Amino acid sequence: METDTIAAISTPMGEGAIAIVRLSGPQAVSTAAGLFQGKDLNNVDSHTMHYGKIIDPETGEMAEEVMVSVMRAPKTFTREDIVEINCHGGLVSVNRVLEIALAAGSRLAEPGEFTKRAFMNGRIDLSQAEAVMDLIRAKTDRAMDVALKQMDGRLSNLIHNLRQKLLETLAHVEVNIDYPEYDDVEEMSHDMMEQKTKEVHEEVERILETAKQGKILREGLGTAIIGRPNVGKSSLMNALVHENKAIVTEIPGTTRDVIEEYVNVRGVPLRLIDTAGIRETEDIVERIGVERSRQVLKEADLILLVLNYGDELTEEDEKLFEAISDMNVIVIVNKTDLEKKLDLERVKELANDQPVITTALIREEGIDQLEQAIGETFFEGDLDAGDMTYVSNVRHVQLLKQAKQALEDAQNGMEMGVPLDVVQIDVTRTWEILGEIVGESVHDSLIDQLFSQFCLGK
Question: What does the cofactor field's note say (predicted)?
Fold first, then answer.
């Protein structure tokens, strides 16, 4: 249990109706009570809110008009006493309240320290704590649902069950080895170890299968819009974003840089990147934009290749198809309102079974078909975040891969006739690796590093 009291601004900086200064620790209530003019906060009921004023002890004058929430341990986020001072939104007012709270003896919280205290005090495990940041950063409803499920302990419960299954197996085998009562005890122990490691291995594999989708939900799908100049790339971006983020003109080469925007496509967050038209050019500024576009191309998860229905297929178009031949691609034939000049059969041949969507963006035609194609490319149709335990955190994925390898080592050992007491080493290692996901076997330095990535006030 921490001994000092921390304070921080827990709402985004900027103008707004309300801003909150949060205090947590053994002196949170008494500190706030010493600054508050109104009811005596030391004597109010827990989980109540009170109107009053914050008085600056140095001047004795009113610093802010506030509403103060008092929440006493252990039924709080940190399992410590918590006070939240609700003041007027604005940089000056909220900073003034924070400064007064710090001058009264509180310490400025480190990034993520409130959530770290919740973890250290046993309210949540490490995977639930990491889900807090996923929830804050969620870009879509589905991403938020996945984070909420993890915060609620869905992944934690799954990992705990797998660890318990391994632990019971290890204990059973250990007893049979140390206290053999029957001649066939070794065969029984071997069969049980083989069955249980297989069951856990299958479950770990199943969780890992969701990693790709989980990563997309958590970080967004890096999507590059490419094509020759003036084929409608910026119009496509504006159509997906539903507002004019990119400049749309009839002049080739208008987009000189990479433009990024997050959009929600049927629950899938797209980190949409509008690139400069890829072509040979003498314009120095445009040439820099083209080089950046080529770099974006290498890092993208999905390519939207835009072609012009009213132009014949060019050598540049064919080179683009060649450059993205081994990537996830959706071909968009735009400007179908123009007279047809494009050889669609050749386009489908070059697309090599990748989706080909026709659009007339100026008439807002074809967007629904495009969004459906994006969903089917990565999620094989509709994504159901409610029935799956998605793993999206890179740390979790790496640990699950290590656990999978340790289980495979154990299985290979049993097939080769390795003694069970040696096989137990790999099974025990699996149990410890899974424990790192929920924080039951993790170093303090890793905990400090993880929580340092959180925003201040959380």
Answer: Binds 1 potassium ion per subunit.
Stretches in the chain below the pLDDT threshold 50:
1, 183, 244-258, 276-289, 381-383, 385-386
Question: Which structural domain, as residue segments, surrounds residue 73?
Answer: 6-124
Output the domain CATH number for residue 364: 3.40.50.300
* pTM, 2 dp: 0.65
Residues that constitute the known binding site for Mg(2+): 234, 255
Write the CB contacts of 337 (distance below 8 Å, at least 6 apart in sequence): 360, 362, 363
List C-alpha distances in Å: 374 to 137, 186, 220, 366: 22, 53, 13, 13
Beta bridge partners of 88: 18
Query: Which candidate, 265, 286, 266, 268, places its Cα nearest to that of 277?
Result: 286
Tokens coding 128: 């639930």
Binding residues, by number, are 22, 84, 123, 230-235, 249-255, 274-277, 458
How high is the pLDDT of residue 289? Answer: 45
Strands 329-334 and 356-358: parallel
Report the binding-site residues for (6S)-5-formyl-5,6,7,8-tetrahydrofolate: 22, 84, 123, 458
Same domain? For 315 and 355 the reply is yes
pLDDT at position 252: 40
User: Does 345 map to a domain?
Assistant: yes
Annotated binding-site residue numbers for K(+):
230, 249, 251, 254
- Does residue 304 belong to any structural domain of this protein? yes
Q: What is the pLDDT of residue 69?
A: 97
pLDDT of residue 310: 87
Q: How much is the pLDDT for 349?
A: 87
Annotated binding-site residues for GTP read 230-235, 249-255, 274-277
Structure tokens at 47: 């989980």
Query: Is residue 1 domain-resident?
Result: no
pLDDT digits (tens, 9 = 90+) for 248-300: 334 343 333 445 677 777 767 787 775 544 444 444 444 444 555 566 667 77
